Amino acid sequence: MKVVKQQDIKLDSSFAEEIAKRSGENVFLCYQCKKCASGCPSRMFMDSTPTQLMRYAQLGMVDEAMKKNTIWYCVSCQTCSTRCPADIDIAHVIDTMRIIGQEKKLKADDNKLPLFNRLWMTMIRFMGRAYEPGLVGSLNFLSGKPTKDMALGMKMIKKGKLKLFPSFKKPFAMMKMFSRAKKLRK
Ligand code: SF4
Ligand code: SF4
To answer: Quick one: which atom of ligand 2 is closest to the CA of 43?
Structure first.
């Protein structure tokens, strides 16, 4: 068995530096207290916890951070950011990881997650609010299962749990906001 000496281990800080440059957040302040993970409402669906994600960022473990479903199951609720004793805006770090992943074309293990995110953002941009039947219908269609969950969706529409037709909320203001954000990013 090969013995790895401590002096042979080199940490790659470039991932953390890129996150810091884009988001202004320093992931090295994280001391693994787990308060972020314990309050996260999406935790049960995630492959790794937000705490582990911070460790991956500190150690430069890009693949572990990007290929798991964690960054895609984050709903940006900010609970972790408000709980963090080190004052790290973790939700912002995760948003930044999503952007880096998309730009570098790093594929998540589950390809549907980035697609869901793109559809969601497009819907919000042009309609100003979510339209669940349209979102799920497009996701299923584009992932080759057009009839998936259709019976359940119809039942929910009949019971008034889902709206058949979309509604719009200030779509022009939302489009303006998206184009301003795009300009700022450039
Ligand atoms: S709450 Fe903050 S310090 Fe604690 S594990 Fe999460 S990121 Fe790290
Ligand atoms: S912002 Fe994301 S990671 Fe943080 S608590 Fe909410 S869902 Fe979890």
So the answer is: 8
